[in-house]
Amino acid sequence: MVKTRVYGQSSKLRKFYKKGFAAYFLIKINMVDKMEIRYKHNKTKDEAYKAIDGFLGKLEEEYKDLIEDYSGSWNSSKDIMDFSLSARGFKISGNVQLYDNLIVLEGKLPLLAKLYQGKIESMIKKTLKEILS
pTM of the full predicted structure? Predict the structure, then answer.
């Protein structure tokens, strides 16, 4: 067990630090980092929408035990989708923008997930390549 000393603080605050709540509290406070992925493809906006929307339905069903509080909605022209979800305790939100020949995914990742950003990006690009080929 790691001992933490907090000088000049109340006994309640010392207990707070000793129990590790300080680290938990700091992680939970808006410590997020932005991620942007641009993926070029050879589909029209409508074809990309159909492929991605169908894939998201399968993904949600396949990983329903890992993904919680999923919310995703497309705008009326079906070229921007806002989404949010929780996975393994991490809250993730962002949007997907569809263009002819280009998809832009912008998201907010918790700071701890930043460690896996490279792996997340490569997995997303690989998946986009598979569903848009």
Answer: 0.70
